[in-house]
Write a structure and sequence with these properties.
Shape: globular
Helix content: 25-40%
Largest sheet: 4 strands, mixed
Radius of gyration: 21 Å
Number of strands: 13
Number of domains: 1
Distance between the termini: 56 Å
Oligomer: single chain
Amino acid sequence: MKSELQNASAIAKVMPCKEPRASIDRESARAMLGKNLFGPEEWLSCYGIWFSEQQLEEISEFPWNESVLNAPCPFVKGKRIKETHFAFLGVYQINNKPLNVLKWHELNPFTGKQELRAHPWYEDQDFARVKTCWFKWYLTLIESVPSSTEKTHQEQLEMLPFGYRAPLVIEELTKNILYYKINGAYPNFNTWIRCRDVVDVGMNNCRICVGDFIRVRGWSGDRKHSAIGVSAFRKNPHSRCIAIEP
């Protein structure tokens, strides 16, 4: 008996422990998400962006596995994450120019309601001219967090479960545009999303909101509003990305 236990112990030390993979390959993610994924193939067909072999290797692994995508959505009862979330590959430049908010407006001059101004008030603000997405995968709730309007920004942040964060303007804007490109529908068309970017307008700090598809406006202070909610981006689980996760 003692010998059998020793042998079993020795085998246990040698046998590798099979744990669920933290990530899955890109094609498996595409098969699960369908039109809820905008990857390198869509960047090529929609915007003519080619990726090198090295770049494709960098994003070959999708950082959320089957268990995550098949899990119940923490925001929409009765739905799974793969049904309520949208994944997209972030790109930081297009035609050798930074893909910032202003560039997106140049590429998409019309919203669903009206034309964007050629020289918006925020054209010299960092959130519009400097910030871009990282070259990595993003996973985000398609619509705003349910019941997140009529709340202060802090109250909205407290609604986000562990592993989620509020977006930057460039991230929310990019999500809206890419989702529309392959689905023909406007996310949050009747709700403005309060983002993390803040600008100083003299009297009060303005937190920037994205709404009407790709329009941008400031909302002073931390006031509640019936049309201002919050979005939810899933934090990237890869350790190499956590250090740069905004």
